[in-house]
Amino acid sequence: MASEQSVEHFKGKARLPVFAVPKRYDIHLKPDLVSCRFAGAVRVSVDVVADTRFLVLNAADLSVKESSVLFKSMASSSKELHPLDITVVEVDEILVVQFDEVLPHGVGILEISFEGILNDQMKGFYRSTYEHNGEKKNMAVTQFEPTDARRCFPCWDEPAFKATFKMTLDVPSELVALSNMPVVEEKLDGFVKTVTFQESPIMSTYLVAVVVGLFDYVEAFSPDGTKVRVYCQVGKTSQGTFALDVAVKTLDVYKKYFAVPYSLPKLDMIAIPDFAAGAMENYGLVTYRETALLYDEHHSAAANKQRVAVVVAHELAHQWFGNLVTMEWWTHLWLNEGFATWVSYLAVDSLFPEWKIWTQFLDDFTLGLRLDALAESHPIEVDVNHASEIDEIFDAISYRKGASLIRMLQTYLGAACFQKSLASYIKRFSCSNAKTEDLWNVLEEESGEPVKMLMDSWTKQKGYPVIDVNVKENNLEFEQTQFLSSGSLGDGQWIVPVTLCCGSYSAKKKFLLNTKSEKLDMGELKSLSNGESNLLGRGNQQQGGRFWIKFNVDQTGFYRVKYDEVLATGLRHAIEANQLSETDRFGILDDSYALCMSGKLTLSSLLSLMTAYREELDYTVLSLVITIISKIVNVAADAVPEMIDDIKQFFINLLQYSAEKLGWDAREGEGHLDMMLRAELLTALAQLGHDITKEEALKRFEVFLNDRSTLLLPPDTRKAAYLAVMQTVNNTDKSGYESLLRVYRETDLSQEKGRILSCLASCPDPIVVRDALNFFLSPEVRSQDVIFGLSGVNREGRDVAWIWLKENWDHITKTWGSGFLLGRFVSSVVSPFCSAEKAKEVEEFFASRLTPSISRTYKQSIERLGINAKWVESIKGERHLGEVVQELAHRKF
Ligand code: BES
Ligand code: ZN
């Protein structure tokens, strides 16, 4: 019995005990934006459901005086109990309140007053800074997910302890005060006003939010009358209208899709200048980085616009998936994030069909595949034993693999059945919590398919298979093994929904592969395709000249495919004859790239395959080509430095066709994807050192310096120009760098600042890279943005970046040490290296510096480094690579 235990009993536990559960919170907060402190009081209605002399809840970084804690039992004629003792267990972030008698069962009210600091760590209750009329000011903001509500008020800070919340704020009278619900009362008392908000429906603590500061807003109503507002800095409201419009329409899309309306009376979305994540789905008060909410007609790029739409759609998806139905524990985080990611594509597709966003989904898909090809990956359903482990699982596994598995399952079950099941899941678990299994059960009931058995193989073990396909005699044989980028053998096995088509998209076959290997009769497949083509009256075997088989049609399955030479050649011809869809062209290239990295395919073969993409014009496919180009350049420069100029020349030639089609200037009536593609192409050519592109870039940049609105350098092509500028910079002539800094300082648009930051460290001169890195740590760069700067370091700068990271490690851990951004420092500096010596050096440095919050990211980075190193060795040993490269570099397309 709990009443016999001591405080010791509650230490070192992953979860809070359940003998008392919160029902309602009445919270009063008084932030002081000048001294950056806050005072607070909370009254929690608690239901005591088992015998206990203790109340155990979360609290961290708060000062709580024993005399301020009181428990009033409502069950036992309002008996007041003063605690015998209170203990704060810092490592476990819990507050243990001990009484000298067993608490009466039933509802009681726990009252606690406390004080805290508005910190600068972008979590809990924190301060963000902005300027108003030239004056520096603070605003107060909350960010609670995953486990930081406890830094603002003592609470049962786990997603399954849902309760209602009634918030009251004391703030300076001239400021805007927002929380999850609408204001019910404002009382003015001199310079202070007391703002009371309506009580919320039941929800988890991580979704509670407060913002206090000076803001303007724009407002609109959704079709069913929900008031939607976008709040931003005074004077910037015109930048809020795009997101507002997206939000209003998206609410309607979800209402129809989930068959449940948005459940709160209002929805506010607000841009916060200092923000660790991209955005946060707080119920009714969604907070965003400025770059993810604000869109400026003249200075935002098409990619910025798309980002805003995707993030808004993602956060609004959480209002159902996450807020209304919440994961039971962080192990099921993917239910929140994987679903929000997947659903956001559905909404964006319905709002902007011309963006072909489902093709772009493959960017997410492939990032999921890449991370999950590491031995240091983790299962989607991951054990969480301590709060410090949670930050790290907001990763490509939970988001991108999660979303990809949902897409795979939806394809398998059919869109209509899937939607119906989701709607019934949402209805059934509204205002409550769910586990992964709960979702499978609903889907299984609605579809009659063995969903749980199928999906367990994907969510309970890490990794995914590669299917090896070979034609042997008259059979098509295939075998699944776990795919690992290192080339090692894994022992996983999956139930794989296999799809394939032969010779035409109407000749399709699908089945579940639930054994290690399987074979199909080739004759049967051929007749399938012949039958089809005869039926349609166009013998595509004759037309394309060759027979082809594409597995994983449309790339909806979370696996890779390795074809034998005959099949691979057939597919290459099919690409050249333009017989395959964008998604399949993407899949073939991405699988080949992954196989090459893991030593299963030569670089020569990969380069030859790439020639089939010379007339590619699809944005997503070409972006992949470009990503692969930059990875190959990185390793080839180490492996075969004598060939690197020829390799680059080949890549420049490969991009010529599309680059010439798009040029620098937008054509009348061109689309969103053209603008995004132009940006990618020019950036890639500038980075490959293409002279003509660089010269043009510099010319246009000169004009831009004198006229920031010049049509010669619209937002989409600026990054290419900035990169070209940084290539002209060296230690003796830093004028280009200084010009960029001037643009950085003069703009007040975060997207523009981000664009510049991502280019500053790309200089070939390491001394300048060092200047840039130091600039990132200066007060001129918000701590949320430093990772953008680091992402711009390229091969020439990577050694300096590593030295810089070591020298500044203490400072960096102090500033970023308590959030997930720290991991990004490690991964972006460590992963690009390609040698065993470097790995050793890195390991030595981190031996004494690892903390739980970066340990997984660190191990993944080291693994990536090792994979690069191995790849370098295998390229070095590749015979005939020189001849192939020679030939390709001089081939005119
Ligand atoms: N719930 C997350 C925000 C979050 C991330 C909180 C990490 C705590 C830790 C939010 O819904 C989210 O996923 N935001 C994404 C943007 C989205 C479009 C993928 C982000 O912050 O990048
Ligand atoms: Zn999310």
Automatic annotation (TrEMBL):
Residues of the Peptidase M1 membrane alanine aminopeptidase domain: 242-458
GO annotation, cellular component aspect: cytoplasm; extracellular space; membrane
Keyword Secreted assigned: no
EC number: 3.4.11.-
Keyword Endoplasmic reticulum belongs to the record: yes
Family as reported in the entry's similarity comment: Belongs to the peptidase M1 family.
Domain of life of the source: Eukaryota
Name listed for the protein in its UniProt record: Aminopeptidase
InterPro entries noted in UniProt: Aminopeptidase_N-like_N (IPR045357), Aminopeptidase_N-like_N_sf (IPR042097), ERAP1-like_C_dom (IPR024571), M1_APN-typ (IPR034016), Peptidase_M1 (IPR001930), Peptidase_M1_aminopeptidases (IPR050344), Peptidase_M1_dom (IPR014782), Peptidase_M4/M1_CTD_sf (IPR027268)
Positions of Zn(2+) binding: H314, H318, E337
Residue stretches making up the ERAP1-like C-terminal domain: 548-864
Lineage summary: Eukaryota, Viridiplantae, Streptophyta, Embryophyta, Tracheophyta
Reactions mediated catalytically: Release of an N-terminal amino acid, Xaa-|-Yaa- from a peptide, amide or arylamide. Xaa is preferably Ala, but may be most amino acids including Pro (slow action). When a terminal hydrophobic residue is followed by a prolyl residue, the two may be released as an intact Xaa-Pro dipeptide
